[in-house]
Amino acid sequence: MLDTDARPWGDIAARLLEGRPWAHRTRRVRALGWDFGVRTNVAGLGERLDRVFEAMATGGEPAHWYSFVVSQRPGFQRQRVYRDGVRLLDTPDASRAFLYMLWDINQHVFRSTDDKVLVHASVVEHGGRGVVLSAPSESGKTTLALGLVERGLGYLTDEAAAIHPATGLVHPFPKALSVDTGAQSFLDRYRPEDTGIEAFLQGQWQVPPSSIRPDAVATAPVRPAWVIVPAYAGGGAAVTRLAPLSRGAALTQLMEQSLNLHVHGRVGFDTLAAAVRSSRCFRLVMGDLPSACDTMERMLDEGPIDG
């Protein structure tokens, strides 16, 4: 049951939440323009959330608090999710509550980041330059980014390429990588460990970048030098193929996957056009992850446009 409207008793509920004895409060998280923390009465869940957000953690007090409250007695369990004292969700489904809170965090990152053009994409770093992997959901972006980070590339994001219009640089948004069910069979090595909170972690896995490599996160902004449009073919007999993509087609792809182009208007269009002009552009059909990573590494070894 969704409950997103502020009710007259909202202030009372907020005060009651403030007075709760929380088992865990995460560190403050600064995710682009969204500044938040999460508090919960389930210690193991809070510790897991610290891992999910560890690459964006900082000191100080959060500007916004999410509250994840689990009520449990024999034959009954409810999960309630609040943001700044306003109830967002009340459900018996633990994994739904967990994923809904992560979804709400992403939505507020997008809404609060109005100084950058946001494109739905994964971004990795090679030789100080950015590799933008942009395609619709379930195209293999996250899986490919994870495979490339395993091979030594730096990780910026699997959610949104945040491009600053004035500099053209892509800024890190290094949330945990979200591995959907379709990719889990060949990424079983990232299955969440058995810690007693499995009910919250069903479905989509959240893979902290430090689980891939301790030094996985690229902390500095990068200039885009490659734009790749991936598509997973799979099916056993599929062969990985890399083909040049026109800059016009690449620009269209970035515009279609933009999350806030309507906010920036012509400046946003010019920002994406500049990113494409500075990049080599390709379409990648992925037969399997190892061959896709091999193909990407060969392409990257050829260097960016300016060498």
Structure description:
- Strands 1, 2, 3, 4, 5, 6 and 7 form a seven-stranded mixed sheet that branches. A six-stranded mixed sheet has the order 11-9-10-16-18-17, with helices on both faces.
- Strand 12 and strand 13 form a beta hairpin.
- Helix content is 31%, strand content 29%.
- It is built from ten helices and 18 strands.
- It is an alpha+beta fold.
- The chain has helices spanning 10-18, 43-52, 94-112, 141-150, 181-184, 209-212, 247-256, 261-264, 266-277, 289-301; strands at 24-25, 28-31, 34-40, 57-58, 64-73, 76-83, 86-91, 117-120, 122-126, 129-133, 154-157, 160-163, 170-171, 177-179, 205-207, 223-232, 241-244, 280-286.
- Helix 4 packs across helix 10 and helix 7 (247-256) crosses helix 9.
- Mean pLDDT is 91; it is low at 1-6.
- The termini are far apart.
- It folds into two domains: 10-112, no CATH class; 117-174 and 217-301, Alpha-Beta Complex (Phosphoenolpyruvate Carboxykinase, domain 3), CATH 3.90.228.20.
- Straight-line distance between termini: 54 Å
| CATH class annotation of the largest domain | Alpha Beta
- Poorly predicted segments: 1-6
State Rg: 20 Å
N-to-C SSE string, H for helix and E for strand: HEEEHEEEEHEEEHEEEEHEHEEHHHEH
Q: Per CATH, what is the topology of the largest domain?
A: Phosphoenolpyruvate Carboxykinase, domain 3
Structural domain tally: 2
Shape: globular
Helix content: 25-40%
Write the CATH architecture name of the largest domain: Alpha-Beta Complex
Q: Tally of extended strands? A: 18
Mean pLDDT: 91
Q: What is the percentage of strand-forming residues? A: 25-35%
What composes the largest sheet? Answer: 7 strands, mixed
Q: Structural class per helix/strand content?
A: alpha+beta
Number of helices: 10
